[in-house]
Amino acid sequence: LASYINLNNDDAEARPVAVVTGGSSGIGIPTIEALALANMRVVLCARNLDAAKEAVNSLPPSLRGNIRIQKLDLSDMSSIQSAAEEILSTEGASNEIDVLLNNAGVMAPPNREVTAQGLELQFGTNHVGHHMLTRLLLPRINTKGGRIVTVASTAHAFGQLDFQNLNYDPPSSSSSVERQYGAWGAYGQSKLANILFSKGLSDELNNIGADDNQDEAAAVDIKCVSLHPGVIGTNLWRFTPKWTKPFLNAIVADRNIEQGAATNAYCCLVDGGAFEGGEYLMNCAIAEPKEFGKDNLGTLRKKLWVATERLIEEKGFELPKTILGK
Fold first, then answer.
1. Alpha-carbon dihedral 208, 211, 214, 215, rounded to 10 degrees
2. What average pLDDT does this structure show over 5-33?
3. How far apart are CA 272 and CA 3, in angstroms?
């Protein structure tokens, strides 16, 4: 198990901390159950607080005290900023955050929708929202074995990053290049971004002190990985026509919700020696993403990192000046 796991720790305040987005439905529920069973304090981040309360109440009574519900809307940068501040002042005040699981997502709305700041909904929520949340929480992530896990998808295979118009802005906007919105293409772009974000963050952490402070670089041990949980019949499919759902569950889905949560739990709880950083996993094992997701030269993830940081700042929000904010 990971170095931060201690199954015999009876001090609730000293238990390791896991922050989980999208913990109120789908694979999020068995994931928070697994983390709570591993004796972790879980911050369940959710947009819908009633759904989050239902999720917690569905768990065994002995686990409910290990979970705190946190309001978070990843499609609104103001909500992300407020949630990060509350987490840092609550769990982060006396403890480090051992696990950040970027699990929430939105999939394939048929028409282009936008976030509170006007970003295409899937790119803005699945990628930009998690990038911002991660950057804000990084100053309190455990640097001696912490874990940042981001849920991607095999759908990254049909995603492409068009840096001239990541947002699928209409031609009448400030974008100089027209890009036709397609539900699955936009979803694929956001999931490709998830994989590249994890690789890019791993690079950023590895580069700490590379030029002039080797001791600081050696002291940082935060493993960043991404994963495909499987094709699962969860509420991610809410934008698909109702008549197709029995077909999707019978033909397309390749595992149930509990099986889908297994790779989440594995990535959060396995010993850190299983990873070097930046890996992509399927079925609780390291796998190869498609070509763009491999990004062997590292240029695509660096370009995405710079574009995302600039985008967040252009919307009027500040990020820590250094990667660990110290």
1. -60
2. 95
3. 7
